[in-house]
Amino acid sequence: MTNLSTLLARFGGVNLLPVALALLAFVLIGQPSSWVTLTVAGLAMGMMIFLMASGLSLIFGLMDVLNFGHSAFVSFGAFVATSVLASLGSWVTGGSAALNALALLAAVGAATAFGAVGGWFFERVIVKPVYKDHLRQILITMGALIVAEQLILAVWGGAPVAVPRPAFLTGSIVVGDVAVETYRIFAFALGLAVYLVMHHALNRTRIGLLIRAGVENREMVEALGFRIDRLFVAVFMAGSALAAMGGAMWAGYQGLITPAIGPEMMILVFIVVIIGGLGSIQGSLLGAVLVGLLANYVAFLAPKLSLASNMLLMMAILLWRPYGLRPAIKG
Amino acid sequence: MNAILRLDDVHTDIGQYRVLHGISLDVPEGGVHVLLGRNGAGKTTTLRTIMGLWRARKGAIVFRHHDITHIRTPDIARLGIAYVPENMGIFGGLTVEENMRLATATGKFDPARLKRVLALFPAMEKFWTRQAFALSGGQKQMLAISRAIIERRDLILIDEPTKGLAPAIIRAMIDAFREIATETTILLVEQNFLFARSLGSTVAVIDDGRIIHRGGMAELAADEALQTRLLSLSLAAHQ
Amino acid sequence: MTGDLPSAPPRRIPAGRLAVYAIVGSIGLALMFAPFLFPDLRAQEVAARICVFIVLVASYDLLIGYTGIVSFAHTMFFGLGAYGTATALKAMGPGFDAILIGGGAGVVAALVLAALIGLLSLRVKAIFFAMVTLAAASVMLVLASQLSDLTGGEDGMTYEVPRLFSAATKLLTDADGKTLRLFGAAMNGKIAAYYFVFFSSLVLFVLMLRIVGSPLGTVLMAIRENEMRAEAIGYRVVAYRTAIFCIAAVIAALAGVLRAVWLKYVGPDVALSFAIMIDLLLMVVIGGMGTMVGAVIGVVVMSLAQFYLKDLMEVGAAATADLPLLPDLLNPDRWLLWLGLLFILLVYFFPAGIAGTLMGKGTRK
């Protein structure tokens, strides 16, 4: 038994869970082409959730602040991106891939920038006065969420809004009898790129070193001469920007959005963060991929159980590891 | 006497508890100065108050000519004060190298200085790329001290470095501290009188949030009656 | 916000406390005689809702105010009681046996689920618990809308209640055989239903007052103030937390039963939705956490605000109709926006809420 577990650990330990899940699904689904489509969809969804979850997780890890208002940034990102795309008209729908790409860049960029600025405001005005007081923190961020959702309703209305998809991302790539949507590949690639950038920033830069140290022991970082509050703002802005980016990507994926987009995704984001372990982006990635895959497989195999399946996954993992699969080390 | 650090009637509360009731203390420049006292006397609180991790309700703390009573912890650190807390404050998920790099102002080591530090604590070189949580207690303490001296500081506050360490490691630490004290002032908080006696040039004894004795270490070491009166508890615990 | 150092003058005349009791007392009396004081149907509807919500909010206060547990699953338990009662009434027909069995099943389900969630995740951080309960509640909400065969989905379900509570039932008749009117209130089944709700709520509320006054309440507050110390003294913190979480869940489920019996309708909007959870939060914070009587004040203030704030905003929107964006923000549908802002300000400046501030209690952690 110990031999088996060390063997498993050598090949990646808990990181193998998504692989195991994919294999299990392969057996249950039976048709390779459906399995590939679902797996790609699951990975793409996982990466978009990862964008939303990683920011939340890092903010929590560093500051011990669980921002219940995080989902507002997802919604804002979705709507800002949609508005930008809608205003660019033929750039988006025209045949020029370069203009398409530019429009997409503008939309996602605007959403991300909005998230960063919103994050700055949120941290300074809403969260900062209630650091170290969890109860009031939860209440205040909840209150801010209510206000933000109402603002979205006031500005964009409650009716579903169609999201124009850049022409070069429509359609599918067909290999044999397997068709894979281009947008999914793009979403997956973007998520992966963001993960790699984050990984690099955390492990190879000075700010990253400070963040990792701050997650473990804020007080000691201060005692070494670093202003942790500046780090807080930076991480809060980055986390909110990522949430908005995730929201923008998700909006394009869905094609039709309502103000409920944030709260709907937030459930999955919370499950991901709980499964992955608070404070670690590896954990967020692992949790997001698991949740994305499971959601798609179950939606195919037993549609009614889709969301409940993620809940059950969360319960099972909590029983096994109460702090999640890969929590950050706390000093 | 030229004091590098001066505490004047410092009162500190933790939550609703009043812990320090007017600490007045001069730390002379150079050498090792010891703050002795039993558990709960207020030693750690004194160090934390100096670092600004807890705020003095009343009184003043002056480092060189800076009044640091009300400034932020990072700014206090940047004036040239290093702090080695009782739990050592090691970042377990970071490597030994990263722990030490974090303590440099620019992120770059001064090679000559790094060499000297590693010569002082050879184990650090051995475990250079290892994550710090895997180190033994003594090694963690060495890492914490290496981190404090990786750049030149004017004053190092060290909280009970010998706690839970084996005698051989304590002896090695005495040598290291002697070396460090040639360029830096050390304010050492201890319960272990034998360790304190071998290093300290001055000593203050704290009890119940007040300084109850101040003087030279040699005088205290020579006066057994005084020792018994001031330190009976801590001596009994460590012999 | 650490507590102020004790500087309050000793033995101040508790005028604020008196005021709070006077307010709560008059609310109680008003509810007691609501069918006679406000005979129109709509007012009765509001009064019954207030009764049930007082129980619901007070039970939530057991968690958030007295124990420092933040749960977002409280409407889930409320919904379990309501849906249990509703499904049984629909399946078995209108009868007290159906209420007993269905409500009982809902309460037991709430108890089991609460015990499970509590044991699973009350060990870890408060924030973690908040997330787990939020996830659980969301899943329950989706389940309710997906299992439409059983729950009626988004539309919910209507059903008959026991004849005694039906508006057509004449409790007292006058000389002509018509339903007797006393002080303008018709003595029909609706009044029986109201008093069923009122007295059940009263019993539950008094029960909760007993709980917070009991040794259990004292232990919970000790845990809230200093978990480590409570643990060190030897209290099994997880066990106590789980216990109060279960108690609160059961009471919330019972409140759900009352709601289902009164409304003759159960759906996500009235028994399960996240909007109710937000209402609960607002009510408990506005009223005053950790005071019990705060629940009474919070519920009444919020219920009135829901009506009058909308009216006020209507006026505002009409007055600013020519300006950009402002009319949208003042649209009565956006009343939650302003309540949300009010809520944030309240948490910043009066974290003790109305009751807590009046009674001069310090801020709570």
The percent range for helix content of chain C is: over 70%
Biggest sheet of chain C: strands, sense, closure?
A: 2 strands, antiparallel
CATH T-level topology of chain A: ABC transporter involved in vitamin B12 uptake, BtuC
Content-based structural category of chain A? mainly alpha
- Radius of gyration of chain C equals 22 Å
- Global outline of chain A: globular
Helix content of chain A: over 70%
| H/E element order of chain C | HHHHHHHEEEHHHHEHHHHHH
Widest sheet of chain A: strand order?
Answer: 1-4
CATH class of chain A: Mainly Alpha
- The structural domain count of chain A equals 1
The CATH architecture of chain A is Orthogonal Bundle
The main β sheet of chain A shows up as: 2 strands, antiparallel
Your description of this structure?
The complex is a heterotrimer of chains A (about 325), B (about 240) and C (about 375). Chain A has one domain (about 35-320): ABC transporter involved in vitamin B12 uptake, BtuC (Orthogonal Bundle). Helix content of chain A is about 75%, strand content about 5%. Chain A has helices at about 1-10, 15-30, 30-65, 70-90, 90-95, 95-125, 135-155, 180-205, 205-215, 220-225, 230-255, 260-275, 280-300, 305-320, and strands at about 160, 170-175, 180, 255. Chain B is globular and about 45 Å long. In chain B, α3 runs parallel beside α6 (about 135-150). In chain B, strands 6-7-8-3-9-10 form a six-stranded mixed β-sheet, sandwiched between helices. The two termini of chain B are about 35 Å apart. Chain B has helices at about 45-50, 75-80, 95-100, 110-120, 120-125, 135-150, 165-180, 195-200, 215-220, 225-239; strands spanning about 5-15, 15-30, 30-35, 55-65, 65, 80-85, 155-160, 185-190, 200-205, 210-215. By secondary structure, chain B is α/β, with parallel strands linked by helices. Chain C contains 17 helices and four strands. In chain C, β2 and β3 (about 185) form a beta hairpin. Mean pLDDT of chain C is about 85; it is low at about 1-10. At the A-C interface, α7, α12 and α14 of A face α6, α13 and α16 of C.
